Description:
The complex is a heterodimer. Chain A is mainly alpha-helical. Helices cover about 75% and strands about 5% of the residues of chain A. Chain A has helices at about 5-25, 35-45, 50-55, 60-74, and one strand at about 30. The N and C termini of chain A lie far apart (about 60 Å). Chain B is mostly helical. Chain B has one domain (about 35-130). Helices cover about 80% and strands about 0% of the residues of chain B. Chain B has helices spanning about 1-20, 35-65, 70-105, 110-130, and one strand at about 25. The interface of A and B includes residues 28 and 48 of A. β1 (about 30) of chain A pairs parallel with β1 of chain B, so a sheet runs across the interface.
Amino acid sequence: MDFAAALALGELVYKIGMPAYKAYCETNKDNADAFTKEAIQAVIDSHETTEETLERLGVDSEEFIDLDSNDQLG
Amino acid sequence: MKSKFIAFVLIVAFAIMAAGCKQPHINNVPEQNQEIEQFIHTASITLNALSQQKTAILESAVMAKINGKITGEELSKVVVPCIRFDHAFSHAGSILLDLRKNVDSGLSPSTASVESALDGLKKILLELEK
């Protein structure tokens, strides 16, 4: 296949493909509610910190927090 | 071989395009605010998913330590990045909340909002690089 033929084929695929792509997007578009201030706050509040997870699992978090601060100093 | 390669490229291109148009349409939001609302929506969902994944990874590592499969030193290699993730999460959460408040207060999704988000992302990246 020479260059001109490849270009023509590409153009044809684009001309047929783009409307099909747009139609595909339109039919598959999901609807969602906006994330409100409260919903974002809920995401923030539901985050379990590493310290909390360690405590929940009965692991002493102090040594790891020291490790992190030492690492940051280095 | 060549046709398999072309088929592979086409499949990848289609997958990328299909993923690209998966941005949801946000209900009851004017068209000019769709983009910023989609950003807030995607960022919130991603942040929540990352937080849950971090907790799951940490839980697995602690269980492995309890069962004697890994040492305390190996556990610390998981814990330290998790603590850094907490810092990054905290930054990202407050930036997202500020952005939400700005949009709610009637400010247009201006360059300033986008710049503040980008500044925040830079801070997060710096935090992760420490």
